């Protein structure tokens, strides 16, 4: 069983590594993401939002929906943990007699 | 030997004078750094999420060094819930206010009709408002996650 | 990007990942996972993604380790397999 799991892991890992061979090199100025979208942000973000940190400008303004639903996901996680784990004093077994 | 073991068993796990004193000294600075990370997110790495986690981890540190009751005295459960919901409502409310003022959802330049600062300044200020909302929500969620996981939901002494 | 530093950090990341899933004591596995998160933070900071590195350092190495320890202290410390 353990050998089978190791085999499955190795095959999946090698397929994933094979898939990364098509990626552009790190910091390649000719890859698609750096050709179409990034120059717009680099040229216009500071002029349009007056925020020197590009990451904050993109996360807060251009991709505001992304940040909003990230907050909603964390909020839902907190609500689920509270509603599953929180016990009020009344429904403890030693008080219920 | 037996007396020593009884004494160490009576003392709670991880309760030591050095840790408590250093945590008491560190907590204000950690909270100040968290506020700095939230507010200074426009100019340096950071932002609402990271600053909120740092703010929440200061309360987690208090609950680890002392017991959970003392951290609950400083920040009650009700205040924590109110802060978290306020943070989530600030984010969605700013977005909805933009839509009400005639722009698109989360298009902060539409808020110019309320206070005329100029659309570009409003985009900068809207990002700041949103970051504060994210920071409050994340801080409250992190603290309540630790409270509930650490005391198994009973809100007693904790770990 | 310095390739020797990269290679060193990536080797340590792989070693930490294998150690975290093969160790029997779950508390040790949690601490090794914290080390893994911190090495990933170093890797991101070295690649220039400082915001991601900051998030990883606060969430991955800070809060999630504490939450794992809180969960382990209320369940069992020894792993079954």
SSE layout and pairings?
The complex is a heterotrimer of chains A (97), B (159) and C (81).
Chain A: H1 2-19, H2 32-36, H3 38-49, H4 54-62, H5 64-85
Chain B: H1 2-10, H2 17-39, H3 48-65, H4 68-74, H5 77-100, H6 119-150
Helix pairs in contact in B: 2-3, 3-4, 3-6, 5-6
Chain C: H1 3-22, H2 26-47, H3 50-74
Helix pairs in contact in C: 1-2, 2-3
At a glance:
With 97 residues, chain A is an all-alpha fold.
Features:
heterotrimer; A: 97 residues; mainly alpha; flat; C: 81 residues; 3 helices
End-to-end Cα distance of chain B: 26 Å
Following the backbone from N to C, one meets helices and strands of chain A in this order, namely HHHHH
Rg of chain A (CA only): 24 Å
Major β-sheet profile of chain B: none
Pairing-aware structural class of the strands and helices of chain A? Answer: mainly alpha
What would you report as the Rg of chain B, rounded to the nearest angstrom? 20 Å
Q: How many extended strands of chain B? A: 0
Q: Helical residue percent of chain B?
A: over 70%
Number of distinct helices of chain A: 5
Mean pLDDT of chain A: 86
Low-confidence stretches of chain B: none
The largest contact between protein chains, plus residue counts on each side, is: A-B, 30 and 37 residues
Quick one: biggest sheet of chain A?
none
Low-pLDDT segments, ≥5 res of chain A: none
Distance between the termini of chain A: 50 Å
N-to-C SSE string of chain B, H for helix and E for strand: HHHHHH
Report strand % of chain B. under 5%
What is the share of helical residues of chain A?
55-70%
What does this structure look like?
The complex is a heterotrimer of chains A (97), B (159) and C (81). Chain A is mainly alpha-helical. Chain A has a domain at 28-87. Chain A contains five helices and no strands. The radius of gyration of chain A is 24 Å and the shape is flat. Chain B is mainly alpha-helical. Chain B has one domain. Helices cover 71% and strands 0% of the residues of chain B. Chain B has helices at residues 2-10, 17-39, 48-65, 68-74, 77-100, 119-150. The model of chain B has no long low-confidence stretch (mean pLDDT 85). Chain C has one domain (3-74). Helix content of chain C is 83%, strand content 0%. Chain C has three helices and no strands. The longest helix of chain C is centred in the C-terminal third of the chain and has 25 residues, at 50-74. The N and C termini of chain C lie far apart (40 Å). The model of chain C has no long low-confidence stretch (mean pLDDT 90). Chains in contact: A-B, A-C, B-C. The interface between A and B is medium-sized, with 30 and 37 residues.
């Amino acid at each position: 069983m353990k050998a089978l799991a190791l085999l499955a892991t190795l095959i999946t890992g090698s397929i994933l590594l094979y898939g990364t061979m098509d990626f552009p090199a790190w910091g390649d100025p000719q890859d698609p993401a750096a050709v179409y979208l990034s120059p717009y942000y680099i040229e216009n973000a500071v002029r349009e939002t007056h925020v020197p940190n590009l990451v904050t400008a993109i996360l807060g303004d251009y991709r505001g929906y992304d940040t909003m639903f990230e907050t909603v996901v964390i909020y839902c996680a907190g609500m689920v943990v509270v509603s599953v784990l929180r016990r009020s004093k009344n429904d403890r077994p030693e008080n219920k007699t | 030997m037996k007396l020593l073991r009884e004494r160490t068993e009576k003392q709670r796990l991880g309760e030591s004078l050095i840790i408590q004193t250093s945590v008491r000294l560190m907590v204000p600075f950690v909270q100040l750094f968290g506020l700095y990370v939230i507010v200074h997110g426009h100019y340096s790495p950071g932002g609402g999420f990271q600053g909120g986690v740092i703010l929440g981890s200061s309360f987690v540190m208090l609950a680890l060094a002392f017991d959970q009751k003392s951290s609950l005295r400083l920040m009650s459960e009700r205040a924590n819930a109110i802060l978290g919901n306020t943070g989530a409502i600030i984010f969605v409310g700013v977005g909805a206010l933009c839509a009400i003022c005639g722009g698109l959802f989360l298009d902060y330049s539409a808020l110019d009709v309320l206070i005329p600062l100029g659309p570009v300044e409003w985009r900068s200020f809207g990002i700041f408002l949103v970051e504060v909302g994210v920071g409050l929500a994340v801080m409250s969620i992190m603290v309540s996650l630790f409270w509930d996981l650490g005391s198994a939901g009973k809100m007693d002494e904790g770990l | 990007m310095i390739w020797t530093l990269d290679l060193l950090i990536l080797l340590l990341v792989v070693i930490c990942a294998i150690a975290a899933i093969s160790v029997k004591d779950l508390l040790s596995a949690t601490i090794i996972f914290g080390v893994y998160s911190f090495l990933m933070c170093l890797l991101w900071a070295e690649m220039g993604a400082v915001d991601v590195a900051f998030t990883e350092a606060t969430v991955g190495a800070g809060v999630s380790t504490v939450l794992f320890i809180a969960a382990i202290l209320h369940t069992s410390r020894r792993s079954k397999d």
